[in-house]
Amino acid sequence: MFNIDETNLTERTESANIPSFTKNSEGPILVQQDDKVIFESLSQELAAKGVIFTDIFTAMQKYPDLVNKFYMTMSVRTDEDKVTAAHAAFMNGGLFLYVPKNVVIEQPIEAIFYHNAELSDHFFKHVLIVAEENSEISYLERFITKGNSDKKVSGNIIVEVIANSEAKIKFSGIDQLGKNLTCYIKRRGYLFENASIDWAVGVMNEGDVIADFDSVLEGKGSHAEVKAVAISAGSQNQVVDTRVTNQATHSIGHILQHGVIRDRAGLTFNGIGHILQGAKGSDAQQESRVLMLSNKARGDANPILLIDENEVTAGHAASVGRVDPEEMYYLMSRGLPREEAERLVIRGFLSSVLTEIPVKEVEKELLSVIERKLDA
User: Fold this and answer.
1) Contacts of 208 (CB under 8 A, 6+ apart)
2) Quick one: DSSP state of residue 64?
3) CA angle 333-336-340, nearest 5°?
4) Mean pLDDT over all residues of the chain?
5) Pfam families this protein is in (predicted)?
6) What is the pTM of this model?
């Protein structure tokens, strides 16, 4: 385990080859290399409907009133803690996505953020997504380190997702940050009446990471589904804190977390379901499971339910264990070698999130990342 106070996540350090990238759909896309935008695409049709999709600094200049209304004022605040304060002070990239009322975007929206391991620059990115009433989007996000280096740098990433009444958001993310990057990642959704966010995130980093996935169910009937998979390997430590806060009546928050640990690595799942007073008819469920592939690894699954109201439903499940020997015996009795049998068991264990990725090419990419981490 590692203590956030012992890291350099609140420090700023002092962007190099342009990476190639694959566009997985015909929808909008934005690609950044460290602090530079290297590709940006938004169709004239969507722009005519009022959709805004650009880097965060351009958005601050062109649409100041709109950005200032939502930027670190509603879901995440600058004075929340020292990490968010440092983020606001030293943020050096990110994007702004705004979807007007009643606009439905059929094609997935993609964002790729590349980190160059050879540079000593800090990696502080801010993503702000606002979906107005009755809008609908699917968003794909990837953070990727290119290259190898022993230079230790800090990362501080905040993603704010505002879902106004009746908005529907599918959010997919694949995190592949490098070994030299110690990173804090906060993704937080803020949902109004009958809004929904479906989160599907693969935590596949190589370095030490603290990842917070939060959903605040502000509006009546709002609904958040949080699905996360993580693999820790080598000597890295990853902590995934997932919280759903039911603030309104008949709100629904479900958490599903599955993780695999190899070598001497550590992985902790903290799941928190909090039903506040007044949120009658709400539902808070969570499941956290960790699969150990090494006797030297450390895994924790900590379910927490905080219930301050009657007439609600809530439940949790948690487990930390090894690969089921009966499953292995069955597969090996069908002629599969042990390594292949174990790989199939792991795939099945993680499939709950893989099947939620809206673009098949990205689902295949996440599967490829999983295979790579298991082979490393």
Assistant:
1) 2, 7, 182, 183, 236, 237, 238
2) H
3) 135
4) 90
5) SUFBD_core, SufBD_N
6) 0.92
> How far apart, in whole angstroms, are the C-alpha atoms of residue 279 and residue 218?
10
Distance from C-alpha of 179 to C-alpha of 230, rounded to nearest angstrom: 15
CA angle, 275 then 277 then 255, to 5°: 5
Strands 29-33 and 36-41: antiparallel
Half-sphere exposure of 330 (CA within 13 A, CB side): 7
**Residue 279: strand, helix, or coil:** coil
| Per-residue pLDDT tens digits for 278-288 | 999 999 999 99
Structure tokens at 167: 């908005």
Please tell me the distance from the alpha carbon of residue 195 to that of residue 164, in angstroms, as a whole number.
6
Q: State the pLDDT at residue 294.
A: 86
DSSP for 125-146 reads EEEEEEE-TT-EEEEEEEEEEE
- Distances from the Cα of 8 to the Cα of 3, 184, 316, 372, angstroms: 11, 10, 34, 28
pLDDT digits (tens, 9 = 90+) for 17-50: 556 666 666 789 999 998 899 999 999 999 999 9
Average pLDDT of span 321-335: 86
pLDDT the model gives residue 24: 60
Q: How far is CA 350 from CA 72, 205, 369, 374, in A?
A: 33, 16, 12, 13
Token pair belonging to 292: 């150990």
Which pLDDT score, from 0 to 100, does residue 366 have?
Answer: 84
CA dist 273 and 250 (Å) reads: 14
